[in-house]
Design goal:
Helices cover 33% and strands 24% of the residues. It has 10 helices and 9 strands. A hairpin with a 6-residue loop joins strand 6 and strand 7. Helix 4 crosses helix 6. This is Recombinase RecT.
Length: 297
C-alpha cells in the first residue's frame, strides 16, 4: 500500500493515479478483497448477477472517492447509493462528513414557524408522447399543469442550517428551506414523499445539503443526496427509442401475409358469389391428376 500513500501536503488527502501501473495493480488487489467481502453492499460484491470485473470497477470508484474526501472506503460503499443511474449520498453521511472534516463546527439548525401555509400553486407534469418528425426519434415530453394545494391546516415551517469555521465567529447560513418551497417544487406532493410524514426531518436534510453545496461542495463532490434524487421532478423528455425498437422486433410481422392473394389496384374486384378462376381450376385436372388415357399412377 506504500504506492498509494502519496499525500498532498496542502490538504492531507491521499491521491491515486489511475495511469500509474503499480498503483493500478495495487488498487485492483484491494478492490478484489472488498468484492469478496460479505460486509459490502450487493453492487460491490461478486455474485452471479455482478461479475468480478463489474464488482472490482465499482469498488475502485468507491475507494477513489473515499481517498479524495478522507473517509473510510467501507463507509462510502455503505452510504453511496445509485438513484436513477447516478450515485447519491445518504443525507446522514453527508452531515457526518461535514461535522468530522475538521474545518467547521458541527452543523446546527434553526426552525421557525411562519404561520399557516394557506393555498399554494404548484406545477405538475404529465408525460405526453411526441412522435418524431420526418422519421426522427419519438420521445416523451412533460406537459405542465398548474394546480392549487390546500395548506390551510398546515404550518409553514422554515429551516436554516448554520455553523462557523473553526477559529472564526462568522456564521455560515444555508438558503432557507420551508414547506411552501417544498410544495412549489413538487417535493411535498410527489408520490411516496416523506415530506408529509417527516416534515422536520426532510427540512433538516435539505437545509444541510444546501449548506454543503454552498460552503463545502468538495465534500459532496457535486453529488446529490438520496432524498434530493427522490424529490427531483422528471426530466422534460425521455428517449424511448430502444423501447420502441424492442417492441417492434417482438411484435412486428408475427403473421404471414400472402401478397398474391391480395387484389391489385389494376385488377377489378370480383363479386364474392362469382367463382374465380382459381375456383374453376380446382375442377380441372392438375399435374398430379390421372391422365385421360393412362393409369392413375
Amino acid at each position: 500500500m506504500n504506492e498509494l500513500q502519496k499525500m498532498d501536503q496542502g490538504t492531507n488527502v491521499v491521491t491515486f493515479n489511475f495511469f500509474d501501473p503499480t498503483q493500478f495493480e495495487t488498487m485492483q488487489r484491494v478492490c478484489k478483497m472488498f468484492a469478496n467481502s460479505e460486509l459490502v453492499p450487493d453492487m460491490y460484491k461478486v455474485s452471479d448477477k455482478n461479475p468480478i470485473d463489474k464488482a472490482t470497477a465499482n469498488c475502485m470508484i468507491a475507494i477513489s472517492i473515499a481517498m479524495r474526501i478522507g473517509a473510510d472506503p467501507l463507509m462510502i460503499m455503505q452510504n453511496m447509493t445509485p438513484i436513477y443511474g447516478r450515485p447519491a449520498w445518504s443525507s446522514k453521511f453527508l452531515i457526518a462528513t461535514v461535522n468530522t472534516c475538521g474545518r467547521f463546527n458541527p452543523l446546527q439548525y434553526r426552525f421557525t414557524n411562519l404561520g399557516r401555509l394557506g393555498k399554494v400553486e404548484y406545477t405538475i407534469y404529465n408525460k405526453i408522447w411526441t412522435p418524431g418528425q420526418n422519421g426522427g426519434k419519438g420521445y416523451y415530453r412533460n406537459e405542465a399543469k398548474v394546480e392549487v394545494f390546500d395548506g390551510t391546516q398546515i404550518d409553514n415551517i422554515q429551516c436554516i442550517a448554520y455553523t462557523t469555521k473553526k477559529g472564526s465567529t462568522d456564521i455560515l447560513e444555508s438558503t432557507p428551506v420551508d414547506v411552501k418551497l417544498a410544495v412549489q417544487e413538487g417535493w411535498y406532493t410527489k408520490n411516496g414523499s416523506k415530506w408529509q410524514t417527516m416534515t422536520r426531518q426532510m427540512l433538516t436534510y435539505r437545509a444541510a445539503s444546501m449548506w454543503t453545496n454552498a460552503y463545502a461542495p468538495e465534500l459532496s463532490m457535486g453529488m446529490k443526496t438520496v432524498e434530493e434524487m427522490h424529490d427531483i421532478v422528471d426530466a422534460e423528455y425521455e428517449d424511448v427509442t430502444d423501447t420502441v425498437e424492442k417492441e417492434k422486433a417482438e411484435n412486428a410481422n408475427k403473421g404471414t401475409i400472402n401478397i398474391d392473394d391480395a387484389p391489385t389496384a389494376t385488377d377489378p374486384a370480383q363479386p364474392k358469389d362469382q367463382p374465380t378462376d382459381q375456383g374453376n381450376n380446382q375442377n380441372q385436372p392438375g399435374n398430379n391428376a390421372p391422365k385421360a388415357n393412362g393409369p392413375g399412377f
